[in-house]
């Protein structure tokens, strides 16, 4: 499958490397000279090789499968998905979509890497707005699998195609059904950031202790079992028993409906996990412990 990357800086080049490593036909378009983009890509492949994620022959094969161009038509023709990774300026992004859709019509889905713009704003004035959505990656994009897909006004086919292409690139797409600031996870990151700034400002702790506290506590858990599954594992019986265990049943009563939804969702999440990652509470706990040991070895804590 052909996947095009328009704007090949930090984010675009990283995602393009993912796609090339999975054997897809990859084109990178940038206003910068192709040699500059090639240099960025080589740097990413070197980092991945050094970190042990790929070996040298795989890195060379990925590079050989990529084409670098300053010709937009050449880059996007035949692409199933065009990942737009140009700088965070609305007019520039909209003008880029117009140029692409004038060249290749409604054929490719166009996904924007934007961290903060709503898909409806990006698609305003487009020739085929239903083909435009957000596909928000996380830095470093060549390693973090997360891509948040958001396009409440995009067609179902556009959403399905984006999810399918990201999976085929080895990414882990999640669907953000509504246009909310920060999509799914930046909102959570901002909450943690606010708390960290406040703690330092109030002299509660040192900068280092805030980072240590997260790295060796909740951050470690979240890295392995997210937020809701983590909390559920902490109480026998999961979310349904949380109010009972912590003695705030009355306080919880207003939240009963959402707690029920979370409890059902966690049950489903556990049941749908591949067996090797644990698909029972006991199995997930064992997987979690193994994962902790691996991470803690890297920190020389074990
Ligand atoms: N850096 C991050 O941590 C991060 C994380 C998630 C999402 N994003 C989003 O990804 C997008 C790209 O960010 P980045 O960090 O890769 O920026 P960057 O500056 O590293 O790369 C932008 C690239 O776009 C190129 N460019 C500029 N004008 C262009 C044009 N008209 N046509 C084609 N290419 C053009 C530049 O030459 C450059 O190579 C932004 O929307 C940003 O908000 C960034």
From TrEMBL:
Enzyme class label: oxidoreductase
UniProt superkingdom: Bacteria
Protein name: L-gulonate 3-dehydrogenase
Keywords noted in UniProt: Cytoplasm, NAD, Oxidoreductase, Phosphoprotein
Oligomeric form and interacting partners: Homodimer.
Annotated GO CC locations: cytoplasm
Subcellular location: Cytoplasm
3-hydroxyacyl-CoA dehydrogenase NAD binding domain segment(s): 2-179
Oxidoreductase recorded as keyword: yes
UniProt site (Important for catalytic activity): 136
GO molecular function annotation: L-gulonate 3-dehydrogenase activity; NAD+ binding
Pfam families: 3HCDH (PF00725), 3HCDH_N (PF02737)
Main location: cytoplasm
InterPro entries per record: 3-OHacyl-CoA_DH, 3-OHacyl-CoA_DH_NAD-bd, 3HC_DH_C, 6-PGluconate_DH-like_C_sf, 6PGD_dom2, NAD(P)-bd_dom_sf
Domain 3-hydroxyacyl-CoA dehydrogenase C-terminal: 182-249
Keyword RNA-binding: no
Gene Ontology biological-process annotations: fatty acid metabolic process
Pathway participation: Lipid metabolism; butanoate metabolism
Annotated EC: 1.1.1.45
Family label: Belongs to the 3-hydroxyacyl-CoA dehydrogenase family.
């Amino acid at each position: 499958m052909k996947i095009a990357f328009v704007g090949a800086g930090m984010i675009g080049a990283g995602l393009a490397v993912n796609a090339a490593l999975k054997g897809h036909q990859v084109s990178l378009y940038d206003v910068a000279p192709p040699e500059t983009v090639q240099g960025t890509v080589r740097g990413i492949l070197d980092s991945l090789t050094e970190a042990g994620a790929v070996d040298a022959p795989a890195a060379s094969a990925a590079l050989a499968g990529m084409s670098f161009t300053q010709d937009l038509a050449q880059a996007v023709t035949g692409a199933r998905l065009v990942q737009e990774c140009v700088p965070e300026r609305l007019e520039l992004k909209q003008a880029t979509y117009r140029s692409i859709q004038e060249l290749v019509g409604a054929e490719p889905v166009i996904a924007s890497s934007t961290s903060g713009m709503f898909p409806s704003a990006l698609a305003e004035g487009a020739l085929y707005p239903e083909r435009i959505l957000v596909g928000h990656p996380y830095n470093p994009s060549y390693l973090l699998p997360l891509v948040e897909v958001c396009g409440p006004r995009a067609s179902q086919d556009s959403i399905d195609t984006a999810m399918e292409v990201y999976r085929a690139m080895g990414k882990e797409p999640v669907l953000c059904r509504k246009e909310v600031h920060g999509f799914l996870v930046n909102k959570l990151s901002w909450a943690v950031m606010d708390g960290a700034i406040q703690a330092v400002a109030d002299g509660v702790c040192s900068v280092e202790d805030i980072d240590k506290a997260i790295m060796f506590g909740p951050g470690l858990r979240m890295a392995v079992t997210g937020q809701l599954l983590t909390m559920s594992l902490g109480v026998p019986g999961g979310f349904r028993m949380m109010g009972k265990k912590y003695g705030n049943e009355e306080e919880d009563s207003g939240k009963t409906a959402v707690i029920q939804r979370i409890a059902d969702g966690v049950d489903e999440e556990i049941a749908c996990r591949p067996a090797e990652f644990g698909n029972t509470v006991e199995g997930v706990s064992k997987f979690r412990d193994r994962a902790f040991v691996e991470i803690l070895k890297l920190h020389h804590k074990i």
